[in-house]
# Entry
Amino acid sequence: MPRPTAILVGLLAVVPLIAVGSAGCATTLVPAPGAHRVAGVGYGAEAEQAGVHIVASAAAWRGFPSDLDDIVEPMLVTITNDSGRSLEIRYEHFDLLTPGGVIFVALPPFQISVVTFEPAYGMGGPVLGFGFSVAPYLSPWYPGWTVYGGPFPFHSGYYAGYYPYYSSYERITLPTGDMIQKALPEGVLAPGGRITGFLYFEQVTDVSRVAFVARLIELGGQPFGQIQIPFVAQ
# Structure
């Protein structure tokens, strides 16, 4: 079941749990004091635990729509796995978390039926990495990529719970082709591997601090750590 979140998503409407309102302004996230900043596109910081190194960068989106950060919170993420274990990459393993416990979840950018797969956009986008095997149910979006050959079940409840968030924005159809092509895919990151792509979180509004949270889950479901990178809103 999806975890409690700052926003409950239905098939036709989005109902805030906190009073952000339609006039709420998008925030700009920057690494908090004490975070280990890194140079590059946007405002990035890094952290490492148990041999897994992550760089998370806010305000790094360069694609269509240009105002995507007024709709969701795109965050460019690079994961390097030197843990000696195969790392399971799933959207449900990532959050933005406030000190008060409000959770902004990572939104699945793919609409998937467990029966049919019908990609709506160009496939095989500019996600960068090596030592990564894409989840079998995402293989139609990534022709030519290595597909993980072992068990990697599709978590339909998470996708059904959070993909409809995009339907709340009416100016353009979301997710766009750019969003899909630049997304961090779900899959398996082998020891020594690296993968880079965007995670799209629920829009962060009316908060002053959040932490990017990545739960480290070994292939098969065994947790072995957690990485947090603090950000402040400007």
Q: What stands out?
A: Residues 50 and 83 are 6 Å apart (CA to CA).
